[in-house]
Automatic annotation (TrEMBL):
It is a peripheral membrane protein. Residues 6-257 form the ABC transporter domain. This is Peptide/nickel transport system ATP-binding protein. It is found in: Cell membrane. One of its GO terms (biological process) is peptide transport. Belongs to the ABC transporter superfamily.
């Protein structure tokens, strides 16, 4: 077994809010091997973004957030290292692309300058070479007329273009881990396909590992080898991608799979689709967290919190009855 590239161990992320302390990520453990592409799925509000931003340590640690547990990157604890050192890892060995690109771009520099600066931070190249590379990176992400776009400012670009600039920037330093948080949600399908191809190529050619957060189970099936399913701040299932579709174990995972619209338009109405919504963080059931929505929930589920059980191989599941409901 190779050493994991990233190891998240019993991570808890608490926020201090006006209504008291809430725990958005609760006892989350998983690992990503070098070159592995891991998907993270779950409805809105399940803690996917908070998990990824905790790994990057992007929250205000003085006022907002408190962490427990540990995160190892290349066997080194990054959760507790000084922010100064963390800055060197961030955007270098580990980089992230978000849903909302404009907040991460600097309005006063051209996109070319911003990409070139990232390149020059990590590679010994001249200004001219960095500029050339920036054009290439933009071309790779499918931006038309990149030699012209490279000299434009972020506000001159559409949302989709800005997202591609972000992706060019994140990939230009050739990170060993890319964290992608729904990066293509706002893009049209053609561009989305190009960006997924780009990520796949970088994964193959450079062994870049990816943590890919998405709503889109189609993307998961195309891209990922392993999948983490989150519900209300917890992991409820970890499985290989094939089993996610052929043999999901957790009732929540089954619900997600069954909610995928059938391509032939023939919706299987006999199959249960998850009803209701994810409870808010101040209403976390002191039991199985999915019990308020689960069609299989009984007294035990409504009283006791199940642990994440190691089923077999790489499979983990958090459900009292997964063996029974088959
Ligand atoms: N800065 C914050 N302060 C307080 N609560 C937050 C903050 N950011 C996120 N949360 C809460 O954490 C939970 C998980 O959010 P998030 O990780 O964004 O979900 P998602 O799975 O959709 O990415 C949500 O209930 C959200 O309201
Ligand atoms: Mg999110």
């Amino acid at each position: 077994m190779t050493n994991p590239l990233l190891e998240v161990k019993n991570l808890r992320t608490h926020f201090h809010t006006e209504r008291g302390r809430v725990t958005a990520v609760d006892d989350v453990s998983f690992s990503i091997a070098p070159g592995e592409i891991v998907g993270v799925v779950g409805e809105s509000g399940c803690g996917k973004s908070v998990t990824s931003q905790s790994i990057m340590r992007l929250f205000d640690e003085k006022r907002l957030v408190e962490y427990e547990g540990d995160i190892l990157f290349n066997n080194e604890s990054i959760l507790h290292m000084p922010q100064k050192r963390m800055q060197k890892i961030r955007g270098n060995d580990m980089s992230m692309i978000f849903q909302d690109p404009i907040s991460s771009l600097n309005p006063v520099y051209t996109v070319g300058d911003q990409i070139a600066e990232t390149i020059r931070l990590h590679q010994k190249v001249t200004k001219k070479q960095a500029h050339q590379k920036a054009v290439e990176m933009l071309r790779l992400t499918g931006i038309p007329a990149p030699e012209k776009r490279v000299n434009e400012f972020p506000h001159q670009l559409s949302g989709g273009m800005q997202q591609r600039v972000m992706i060019a920037m994140a990939l230009s330093c050739q990170p060993s881990l890319l964290i992608a948080d729904e990066p293509t949600t706002a893009l049209d399908v053609t561009i989305q396909a190009q960006i997924l191809d780009l990520i796949r190529d970088l994964n193959k050619d450079m062994g870049m590992a990816v943590m890919f957060i998405t709503h889109d189970l189609g993307v998961v099936s195309e891209l990922c080898s392993k999948v983490i399913v989150m519900y209300l701040g917890e992991i409820v299932e970890i499985t290989d991608t094939e089993s996610l579709f052929t043999n999901p174990l957790h009732p929540y995972t089954k619900g997600l799979i069954q909610s995928i619209p059938q391509l032939d338009g023939d919706r299987k109405d006999s199959l249960p689709v998850i009803e209701g919504t994810v409870p808010s963080l101040d209403q976390v059931p002191n039991a199985c967290r999915f019990s308020t929505r689960c069609p299989f929930a009984d007294e035990l589920c409504k009283q006791e919190h199940p642990v994440l059980e190691h089923d077999r191989d790489e499979k983990h599941v958090r459900c009292w009855h997964y063996k029974k409901i088959g």
